[in-house]
Amino acid sequence: MEVVRLRQVSKRYGRREILADVDLQVNAGELVALVGANGSGKSTVLKLMVGLSRPSAGSVQRNAGVVSYVPDVFASHDRLSASAYLRHMGRIRGLSTRTAQARAHELLDRLALSGGADTPMRKLSKGNAQKVALAQALLRQPELLVLDEPWAGLDATAHTTLRELLTETAAQGAAVAFTEHSAQVVRSTATRVCEIEHGRLTALTHQASLTEISMVPGAEIDWSRYPDVVEVRPHEAGVTLMVPTGRHDATLLTALQHGWSVTTVRQVRSE
């Protein structure tokens, strides 16, 4: 189901053209990554999606009741704790105090907010303020979730948690769109990638399929240093690697040469 659609959208500020003839549709269940250089117009597209900006030409249609947005810079509240801020935001969005409090603590626990939920907002680092920003966007299940560089400033553990949260949100029927510079994050999260160059949508591609390789360790290997490995998932029996299909043979060969035992190999995402 189409959740948001930009039809031949252009955006100007005075004589400066930011976007030109952008046509983009995001459907329920999709995770769409917008990539491109700084100043290419990615953030402007996100603001148009959620209604924070209006097109100079063209149209934007949203079929979403609950819309959540995480900006690239989060203006945190000086006087409130993280928990109090999220409880307040939950009430604004129609949740009961108890439900808002429980959901806030659940999200902050998953994101591992340093200092805990009662930490005053003014004392939060940039990375921890970002965790609160992400939590406020997910207090209610959104139908459209839009995030501008949401991984910026997050620690490694929160990187993984955020990817899980976005995947879960899409699986529950939301359309998710985000900007990101890291190719590894894009490959491991997005189901579709849109490239914007000089204000124009120049590429619209589906993600290549990924192959999941589960193995029992042999000689020590730091798989995170291998460029073809998108994700490393340690577990009790060993490790599971996510590798782009078509480039997984080299990973398997490396594993076998170092005495690793391969238990399963399966494709997990189709074109």
From TrEMBL:
TM ranges: none
Keyword check for Protein biosynthesis: no
Alphabetized InterPro entries for the sequence: AAA+_ATPase, ABC_transporter-like_ATP-bd, ABC_transporter-like_CS, ABC_Transporter_VariousFunc, P-loop_NTPase
Gene Ontology molecular function, alphabetical: ATP binding; ATP hydrolysis activity
Keyword entries, A-Z: ATP-binding, Nucleotide-binding, Transport
Pfam families assigned: ABC_tran (PF00005)
Record has Nucleotide-binding as a keyword: yes
Segments forming domain ABC transporter: 4-223
Domain of life (superkingdom): Bacteria
Protein name (Swiss-Prot/TrEMBL): ABC transporter ATP-binding protein
Organism of provenance: Kribbella jiaozuonensis
Source taxonomy: Bacteria, Bacillati, Actinomycetota, Actinomycetes, Propionibacteriales
